[in-house]
Amino acid sequence: MSTRNNQDRLGALDADGSDPTQTSGENNFSFVTPTEFVELPSRGRYYPEEHPLHNQEMVEINYMTAKDEDILASQSLIKKGLVLDRFLQNIVVDKSISMQDLLVGDKGAIMVAARITGYGSDYTVDVTCPSCGIQSENIYDLNEILEITHADDYDKSNTEVTNEGTFLIELPVSKATVEIKLMSGVDETKLRSLKERKKKLKLPETDLTDSLRTIILSVNGSDQRNSINEFIQSMPSADGKHIRSVYQKVNPAANLKAFFECDACEYAKEVYVPITVRFFWPE
Asked: Which one, 18, 39, 54, 102, has the greatest CB density within 10 A?
């Protein structure tokens, strides 16, 4: 991330050396919130041409303000599950960019950068040991543990990128060719709503197949949803695992990864650091 200060935003001083951002009068002044340029994991590769982030490697955000904290504190937005999207929408400088249209990895990078501008880079979080299950409190520097996987950081030998920014994969067992897309904010919202609805109705959880239905656009050139759903239901498990594996490789992401040592069982490995309520609501 790189910071743009107020002087950069407003230009040089006037000819007489005065600051054009300052108004006359003892109690009058104006202030422009400093901004930050955030590196996009996607580098803008997979957005359509009409999207404001098409082929853009950076996005500009405002530093968090008291108004933004009011948004984060809104109980109505929290209950509706809209608080983070509303907050992120407010800090992005270019208002033509919609959080719902952002790729999930890019949205994650903006979220981490926004948190650092508001509360600093130190993040206190309880991490559950993968070995013994015991939780321990840890403090991490977000600048140090943020790991960006870029759009081009993957093995291209097993995939073909289309002009629309989707990916063609030949499956190992069925030999079918599937076309997949990267998840956006709207896809995340739909999956979350579907999961909550099934929970309320006490229906079986189908997270894996629901995710596959979201990212698969066509099978052997057919984009008929009924055909795709039938294929997913009968697809060999090895094929489904292959799709998920390829998706993880091609998906530009902003992950928080750190070395973790468990005091209880001496487990010591790199783990994904969870984003909990303490991320934007620190104690």
From this structure: 102
